[in-house]
């Protein structure tokens, strides 16, 4: 993540073991990397829960990034985040990312609930979570993303 923040795509790719794309250097992505680097500095134990590159198999192409916002909280809730690079959208990758993240959450004994937060205007993400059993439980104001709807599902 620090290599990405330094705009060193070659070093970041070498460290990740996959060829990362310019999508990992966008302003939105850099906000994620900055936030996660700070999170790791304050809680190194959260490393296994955080954002990672998503690689489509068997091609080995990086299609985006996904992960949790951190380890489960005291109530057993994890929040899911994912982002698909524009050239790979509308091909089922977001649903696959969501499926795998829910599977990972369910495999952890301390996790009871998975959450996603989505802008009401983000029809693609709202469509992505349909069929997974998510229920709208509220809304929040995010200083970066504005109004977000909060959805949760038991794992």
From TrEMBL:
Residues 4-154 form the N-acetyltransferase domain. Pfam families: Acetyltransf_3. Keywords: Transferase. It comes from the Bacteria. One of its GO terms (molecular function) is acyltransferase activity, transferring groups other than amino-acyl groups. This is Acetyltransferase (GNAT) domain-containing protein. It comes from Nonomuraea pusilla.
